[in-house]
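Notebook, p. 212. Picked up where the previous page left off. The plan for this session was modest: take the two constructs that came back from the sequencing core last week, fold each one, and keep the raw output in the notebook itself so nobody has to go hunting through shared drives later. Recording the first one now, exactly as returned: residue sequence, then the C-alpha cell string.
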Amino acid sequence: MISLYKTLEFDILREHLAGLAASHLGRERIHNIQPFTNLADVEKSLNQITEMRDLSDYDQPPPFDEIADIHHILEKARLVGSMLQPEEIADVLHFIIIIRRLTNYFRERQERIPVLGEITSRLVSLQSLEKTIDQCIDSVTFQIKSSASPELASIRKSIDRAQTSARKKMESLLKNYAEKGLLQENIIAVRNGRLVLVVKDEHKRKVKGLVHDQSATGASFFIEPLSVVEDNNRIRELEAEEAKEIERILRQLTNAIREEHTALAENLLLFGELDFIHAKARLSQVLNAFQPELDNNPIISLVHAQHPLLLLRMGEKNVVSLDITLGDKNHTLIISGPNAGGKTVALKTVGLLTLMTSCGLHIPAQPHSKVGLMRKIFADIGDQQSIENDLSTFSSHLQALKEIDEKADAQSLVLIDEIGAATDPEEGTALAIALLERLNKRKSLSIVTTHQSPLKAFAYQTEGVENASLEFDIESLRPTYRFRTGIPGSSYAFEIAQRMGLPVEVTDRARIMIGSHKNKLEGLILELEERVQQYTRLSREANIKETEYKGLLKLYTERNEALKRETNAIKRQAVQEAEAMLQESNAAIEQAIREIRESNAQKQQVKMARQNVARQKEKIKTIQEQIKTTPATPVQDEAIKKGDFVIWRISGARGQVMNHPDKKRRVTVQFDGGMKASVPASELEIDDTKRQPKTMVRLNVASDKHYSREVDLRGLLGEEAINVLDQFLDEALLAGFEYVHIIHGKGTGKLRKVVGNYLQKHAQVKEFRLGYWNEGDSGVTVVELKGKKKITNAIQE
C-alpha cells in the first residue's frame, strides 16, 4: 500500500490533508488513512464530509481550534496521589472549553447533520469542571489565582502587607545610606528572596546586617539590614504557606480531573474523529470537490475530473478536466499519443480519484460522477529499476506485470504506463496484448498507455477494449490535454522532430525505414485527427446556425403576437375616442331634441335626428366587433399522431409530426426548413392542403428583447424543467451570452442530475460545472455556451 500511495502521489495529498487538521489526533488519523473494504463505510465517510462542508459553506464554521496533546496528562492524572502542574491543567481547561463550544454548536444544528450527529451527540460538556479550573488557574500566565481558595487569598494579603512594610523600611534606609555615599547603586535588590542594599566594599562594615552575596568584581556587597530581617523572615514564612496551599489546590484539581477521566478520554477520541472529518471537508473546499455516486458494480465514470495536486499547484482554471467511463461496455482502455501529451497524468488522475473514493474522500469531479468500490488497485507507473535489488527497468516492469496477472480480478483497477516498453517492441507488444486479453476476460478495469500501433489495432478489433487519446493540435504540434475515447493517438515523432530542428533528410529516411504499412497507419491516424477536428468545428458552427434559426422563429412568433396586441390597442383607443365623441354628439342631439320639443318642431324632424344617432352607434358597434380577440377553439389533439403533416396555428408554420404526444400532450414537429420544435398538440391542425414549394421569407428582427442570464427550475418536475431549460438556452444563445446560471437548488439532488444529464447531450453546451461558494454552490450549475453570435441583422429561413 505504501508503494501504491507513492506511485499515485497519494502520500503528497495526504500530507497536505494533515496540514489542515487542528490537532495531533486528527493528523494521526490522516497518516493512518486506509481504503475501506465495504461500500457502506465509504458512503458514511462521504456523507460526514458533505455535512461538515455544508456547515462551513452555508453557516458559521465549526469552532475547531488547536489543542495540546493531553493524552499523557490524563494518564498522569489517573495515578492516585499524582499532582498536575498549572500548565498541564491549563491545557486540560482549554480542551474542555473547545469541547463545550463544539457541543453547543452541533446541538443547535443537529437536524442538519444526521450522520455527523452519531458522533457529536456523544460529546460531554464538563462545565462544572471548567468552572472549577477557571476559578483557580490563569490560562494565560498559568498562575494560581487568589480566588482558588480563601486561605490562599488571605496568605497573599499578608504577604502584600509584609512586603509593603519591609519596602518602606528599605526605602528609608536607602535614602539615608545614599546621602552618606555608602551605596554602589541606589536601588533595592533581591537576593535569595530577601530585600537587600548594594553597598560599596569599603563601606560594608558601616551597614549593619547580613551579607547575602557580592558582585563578581568584589566591589559590591548585597547586605540585608538588621532592621528588616524580621520582616523578610515573615515574608519567607508566608511564601512557604502560599506554596503549601498552592500544592493542595493543584492536588485538588488533579483529583477533579481524575474523576472525569472517562468523559475526558471519550471527548478526546471524538474530537480526533471530528477533527479528521473537518480536515477532509476543508480539503473538499480547497479542491472544489464533491461526493461521487457509489456503485456496487466495478465501474468508473468520471465527469470533469481533475488531478488534485495539479489543482493545488496551478488552480482550477489552468487544469484541463477529463471525462472517462470504464466498466459499462468496455473494461480496458488503451491510451496512445505523443510524449508529454498528458497520458500519464490521465492515468494517475483516474487512479488517485478512485483511491480517494475508496478512502472516503470527496473527489474533484462533478457530483454525478460514479465510482464503484475497487478492492485492489495496481499501478505500474514510472521507472522502477533498482540497483540494490539488481532489477533493470524491464525486469521491474515484468515483476509488476506478474503480480497483476496473479492477483487482479473483476474488482480490481489496473494502471500500466508504457506497457511492454523497455524491450524489443514486437516482443513487448506481444506480451502486452497477451496480458490485456487475460485481464479483459476477467473484466478487470484496465487502463494502459502505449506508443505501439499493434496495441491500437488490438483495441479496435477486440470487444471490451477501446482506444483513447489526448487531443493534439496538428497545426501548432502542441498538446491540448483534452481526453477523447474511441480515437487512437499518433506519437507525432517525426513531426515533433522536425519542429525541434532535426534535418528533414533524417526524418524522411526514418519514414522509409519503418515501412509503408506503418506509414500508412500513422497517416490514417493523422487524417482521422484532422477530420475529427474539422468536423468538430463544422458541427459547432451548424449547431449555432440551427439555434439561431430556432430563435428567430420564436422571436418572429413573439413579434407577430406583439404586433397584433398593438393593433388591437390602437383600435381600442380609436373606439374609445369615437365613443367619447358620440357621447358628446348624443348629448348635443338630445339637447337639440329638447329644444325642438320646447319650440313645437315637427315630429318628422325629431325622428330623423334619432335615426342619425342610431346609425352612429351602429358604426361604433361594428368597430368593436372587429377588434374583439377571438378565443381559441379547443382542438381534439387525440387525432394528432406521428407522421401527420400539420400547421402550427401560432405561427402558420408547416411541418411533420415526429412522435406521438407525450404525457404533457406535446409533440416534436420537423418544420419546413429543417428546424425542430416541441409544441402542444392542441396548437396544431391537420394540413389537408397540397404541399407548396418552400419559399424564402426575410425577417428583420432587432434583438432588443431583454434576456436573463439565469433560470430558476426549482419546483419543476423533470420533463417540465427540461422544456423550460431548452427554451432558456435558445434565448441565451440568441442573446450572445457566454455563461448562464441554472438554479435547481440542492434538495435530494435529483433535479441537479436531470439538468446535468441534459447538458451533457446539448450540442451548444461547451462545458458546465457547479457554482462556487459565492455563486450558489451546488444549488446552481454554471454553463459555458459554444455559440456567441448576437442576432442584429436579417437572415433567411
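Okay, moving on. Second construct, recorded in the same format:
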Amino acid sequence: MPARRIQIRGTVQGVGFRPFVYRQATKRNLTGFVLNDLGGVTVHLEGTLEAVEGFLEALKESPPPAARITGIEVREAEEHGYTDFKITESKVGEASQSLEVSADLATCQECRREILDPRDRRYGYAFTNCTDCGPRYTIISELPYDRPKTTMATFRMCPDCTSEYEDPLDRRFHAQPNACPACGPELVLFDARGRAVRCPDPVKETVNLLASGKIVAVKGLGGYHLMCDALSPETVAELRRRKRRPHKALALMCRDVEQARVLAEVSSHEESALRSPAAPILLLRWNPQVSRKVRDAIAPLNPGVGIMLAYTPVHHLLFATPVSGTALSLGPLIATSANLGDEPIISEECELFAKLADVFDAVLAHNRPVRNRIDDSVGFIEPKRSERPRTLKKKIKNHGLCIVRRARGFAPAPFETPLRFPSLLAVGAEMKGSFALSDCNRVWLSPHIGELTNRETIGFFETTLGTYLHWFRVKPEAVACDMHPDYLSSRWAERYAEENDIPLIRVQHHHAHIAAVMFEHRIDEPVIGLSLDGTGYGPAGSIWGCELLYVPGEGDSFERLGRLRGIPLVGGEAAILNPVRMAAGVIADIFGKEKATEIFGKEGERAARQLESGIGVIKGVSSAGRLFDVVAGLLGLVREITFEAQAPIALESFALDEIDRPYRFEIGSDMILDPEPALEAILDEIKKGSDLTTMSSRFHIGFAQALASWVELAAAKLGTRTVCCSGGVFANRSLARILGEKVREKNLTLYLPNLIPVSDGGLSIGQLLVARSLM
C-alpha cells in the first residue's frame, strides 16, 4: 500500500506526543518517523492498511492526557522502504500558524510518587517532571519546543537522564525539562537582605520558617508567591500590613483535597477541577466550621475562599516535610502573588529584592529562569450546569469551570472556531487587561496581564504580545480597542495603528462583552445581551454599566434596548472609593435632601449641597456595579474601597439563595430599569432594624427577578429566545445563579462565559469578533 503522511495540529509538543506515536507505531509493526515542526507533529507511516487504520483510531481515541488535537490531515506519500520507526530531530521549515504551545501542567501522580519515595533517585528533588507534567510555556524561548530553546538549555543532562530522554518507552522520552539532582536546577534559600543561607536542605529550613510565623517568597512556575501560615491570623495580618493589602482576599494553597475540605465545601466537580492538570485557584464556599477570626484574616466580608492544590514539586515537598523536632507537617498556606499593587507577578530575584524586601523574611529561589511569567488562573464551578451544545469546550473536560482569570494551565492554548478571521489584534480595556490575536480559524487570548494603569504592566503587555506575535506568526491587519479615549490600552492601540499603518477599530465596551459570549458559544443568531459591570464608555461619553442590548447574529452592531435609571456620582470618579458618600448622593437625588440628611447626617447634607451645585458630579450613570456600591453603602458594609468590587463582594457575602418578599424594581415603558422601589424598601427596613442577611438577600433576588423580566420583555418584542450575559457583575455567583434559574423559568436560553473570563479579561475576544465583521 502507499505510505501515509499525517499532520497533527494542536497542543502536541511537550506533552509526550512523539513517544506516544512511537509506541503506537512499533506495536503495529509500522515503519517511518515522527518529528516536531512548526505545523505541530508530522508522522510518516509505512505498513499495512489495517495497521495504519488502527494507528489513526488510537490517535483519535486515546492521545496523551495533556495533548489537545485540533486537526488531523492524512495524505498519500512516497514510500521510502524504512525498516524501523524513529523519532527524528525537529524541523524548522516554513512559518506556520498551526503550532500550539502547551500550558504549564501540575505535577502528575507518578512524579509526585517519585519525589516522596526514599528509594527513588529523584527523592526530594524539586524539579522532577515528565512528558505528562511540569513547565512548558514559562520556560520556552523559541519554537519548536526543544530543550536548546528553553531556559533548561544550560543544564546538561547526566547519563541517567540522557538514557531516559532517549528511550522511547520511558515517560521522560524527549521531556525537554528532564533533570535530576545530579544535573538539574537547584534550590537556594536567601534571607531578606539577599544573602544565601547555609543549610543542607533549603526546603526543610523554609518549612521551619513558615511554621514559626515567617513570610517566605517561594519561586514557582510563573513567578513568586508570598507564603505564610494561613491559620495564623496574626501572621496573615502582618503579611497584609507589609504588602499594603488590607482587605482583598488572599489565595490559599493546600496539600490535597482533604486539607482543602477543612476550610471549604468541595463538591465532586470542584474536586475534579482542583485535581486537574491546570490546577486553578477555585472559588469555594467556606466550611461553616471555620472560625470567623480565620475567615476575616484570609477573606474578610467574602462569601468564599480561593483555594488551589500544590502543583509543583517544590510545593509538594513543602507540605510533605515535617517541621523540625515534630512529626507535624504544614497546614494550609497563604499563596498570594508577589507583586507591588496592581503590577505583574515578579519572577526575577533582582526585582523581588528591589521591590518587596520589606515584605518577606526569606526567599526560596532556584536557578531555572522564568522566560514567560504568568499568574495563577482563577475560576469557579457553575452551581447548576446548563446545557451548552455549541460551546467551544465540547471536547474539553473542564468540569463546569467558569474562568474568572485565565492564566497558568490554560494560556496560551488557542480557541478553534469555524469562523475565518483575518490577522487581527485586540487590546481589551484597562482593568483585568488582556489582548487577543486571530488568524484564520484560531484565536489566542493572552494570559492575565493586570491593570493597564502603570508603566510596569504596559511593559509586561508589550513583552507578552511580542512573544505571541513571534511564536504564532501573526501580522495584524487591524487593531481593535475600547471606545474610552483615556485608557492606556486605547492610546497604545492608536500608536500601534499609526506606526504599522493599519486601521484602528473602536468597539463599545458592553457590545464587546456580549460578542465574547457569542464567540465562545458559537452563536450565529440574534441575541438579547445583558451586560452588567462597573464602568463602560458609552457612545456619547456617558458612563454605562447596566445595559440591555440587541445584537444581530453577525455580532457586528448593537442596539441599546434599555438601561438602568441613571444615578449621580457625587464627587466624580472619587465617589467610587466611598460607597457611603455615593449612597448619600443617590438618596439625595431620588428622595431629597431631608431624607439624605436623616439617613447620613452631615455626610448626606454635604452630598445634597454638592448635588445641587453640580460641581464635581457625574450624572446619569447607568451602572449595575455602582448600584451594588450604593446598597453596600446604605447598609454600612464598606466605608472606604481598597480594591475593585470590594463593596459588591461584601454585599454578596450576606446573600441567601431564597427569601420571601424580594425588593421590587420598576420597568418603564421606555425599558428603563428603576431601582427606586428597592431603595425605598431598604430605607424602611434599615429603620425597622432588619438584619443584613435579609436585606442583602432581598436585594439580590429582587434584582435578579427584575433582570429576568427585563430580558423577557425584550425577547417577546424582538422574537429571540437567546440571552447572553457578561460583565464583571456576573462574577457574583449568587446573582448569576438566581438569574439563571429565573430566565430558564421563562423558557429562555441563557449563556454565560466559561473558558473566556466574564470580566474585562475576556473583552478583547469580543473586540476581535466585532472587528472581524467590520473588515
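Notes on construct two before I forget. Residues 102 and 168 are 21 Å apart (CA to CA).
Flagging for discussion at group meeting.
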